[in-house]
Amino acid sequence: MYEFRFELTATDGAARTGVIHTPRGDIRTPAFMPVGTAGSVKAMMPQSVREAGADIILGNTYHLMLRPGAERVARLGGLHKFCGWERPILTDSGGFQVMSLSKLRKITEEGVRFQSHIDGATEFLTPERAMEIQRLLGSDIQMVLDECPALPASEAVIEKSLALSMRWAKRSKAAFGEQPGHACFGIVQGGTFTHLRARSAAELTEIGFDGYAVGGLAVGEPQSEMFDTIEATTPLLPADRPRYLMGVGKPGDIVGAVLRGVDMFDCVLPTRSGRNGQAFTWSGTLNLRNACHADDPAPLDPDCRCPACRQFSRAYLHHTVKAGEIIAPMLLTWHNLTFYQDLMAGLREAVAGQRLAAFAQAFNLSLQIKMS
Amino acid sequence: MYEFRFELTATDGAARTGVIHTPRGDIRTPAFMPVGTAGSVKAMMPQSVREAGADIILGNTYHLMLRPGAERVARLGGLHKFCGWERPILTDSGGFQVMSLSKLRKITEEGVRFQSHIDGATEFLTPERAMEIQRLLGSDIQMVLDECPALPASEAVIEKSLALSMRWAKRSKAAFGEQPGHACFGIVQGGTFTHLRARSAAELTEIGFDGYAVGGLAVGEPQSEMFDTIEATTPLLPADRPRYLMGVGKPGDIVGAVLRGVDMFDCVLPTRSGRNGQAFTWSGTLNLRNACHADDPAPLDPDCRCPACRQFSRAYLHHTVKAGEIIAPMLLTWHNLTFYQDLMAGLREAVAGQRLAAFAQAFNLSLQIKMS
Question: CA of A204, closest CA in chain B: separation in Å?
Answer without folding.
Answer: 36
